[in-house]
Design goal:
This protein is about 30% helix and about 25% strand. By secondary structure, the chain is α/β, with parallel strands linked by helices. Strands 2-1-3-6-14-15 form a six-stranded mixed sheet. The chain has a four-stranded antiparallel sheet with strand order 8-11-7-12. The chain has a three-stranded antiparallel sheet with strand order 4-5-13, covered by helices on one side. The protein is globular and about 55 Å long. The protein binds ribulose-5-phosphate (5RP).
Length: about 230
């Protein structure tokens, strides 16, 4: 089974948690897109849901496939969010933001009663940090924010380069008009401490550590689909 088939398997399993009438947060990335495709099939067969997309990219796919959408302002309380992740540990702490949508993803997940993460088994890790941590920053004062992040990392025993994410010839901008710094910290031994100190830096809009947000992870491997709960 190839990676795409595993993503489809995880997405199909997640779809079983979707009930008629639900207000759904819909994630971003290649795994979330497989979920959108399967959801669209169910919608065409009569399933009634309202989706709140976590990115313009997801919104475009939903509209193309006929999944009805609302904004988070129209539906500020959601029943369930289904989203992918870049890394998942055994306590369901996540690194997200590889697809650049972490701010909206976190806002939508926080507005949901439950968040289910869908992934193939390559995303499961013992300790977070092999995947570079995306940090969404305000363009104003970027150099000062970088220095603050460097100092914070040093104080927490983290080292590694921080790269500003690129897109073509320029720098990547999120749907909200922010930049992303990808921090190659390596093993993050205290994700909670790092998360709260990053939040204390004014130029940091949000970071990709998702802690205490996911209530279930559906992990597809080559032969079976398993679930992880915190
Ligand atoms: C986007 C994300 C994605 O969920 C994450 O990058 C995983 O993507 P994929 O399913 O393509 O591996 O956080 O910001």
């Amino acid at each position: 089974m190839d990676a795409r088939q595993m993503k489809i398997k995880a997405a199909a399993e997640a779809l079983k948690h979707v009930e008629n009438g639900m207000r759904l947060g819909i994630g971003t990335g290649s795994t979330a897109e497989e979920f959108v495709r399967l959801l669209a099939e169910k919608v065409s067969e009569g399933l009634e849901v309202r989706g709140v997309p976590t990115s313009e990219r997801t919104a475009r796919l939903c509209l193309e496939l006929g999944v009805p959408l609302n904004s988070l302002d129209e539906l500020p309380e959601l029943d369930l969010t289904i989203d992918g992740a870049d890394e998942i540990d055994a306590s369901l702490r996540l690194i997200k933001g590889g697809g650049g949508a972490l701010l909206r993803e976190k806002i939508v997940a926080c507005a949901s009663k439950r968040m289910i993460v869908i992934a193939d088994e390559t995303k499961v890790v013992e300790t977070l940090g092999h995947f570079p941590l995306p940090i969404e920053v305000n363009p104003f004062g970027l150099a000062a924010t970088r220095i603050a992040i460097d100092r914070l990392a040093e104080s927490q025993g983290l080292s590694g380069e921080i790269h500003q994410r690129k897109a073509g010839e320029g720098f990547y901008k999120t749907d909200g008009g922010h930049y992303i710094l990808d921090a190659f910290f390596g093993r993050i031994s205290d994700a909670e401490a790092l998360a709260s100190s990053l939040n204390a830096i004014p130029g940091v809009v949000e970071h990709g550590l998702f802690i205490n947000l996911a209530s279930l992870a559906i992990i597809a491997g080559p032969t079976e689909v398993r679930t992880l709960a915190p």
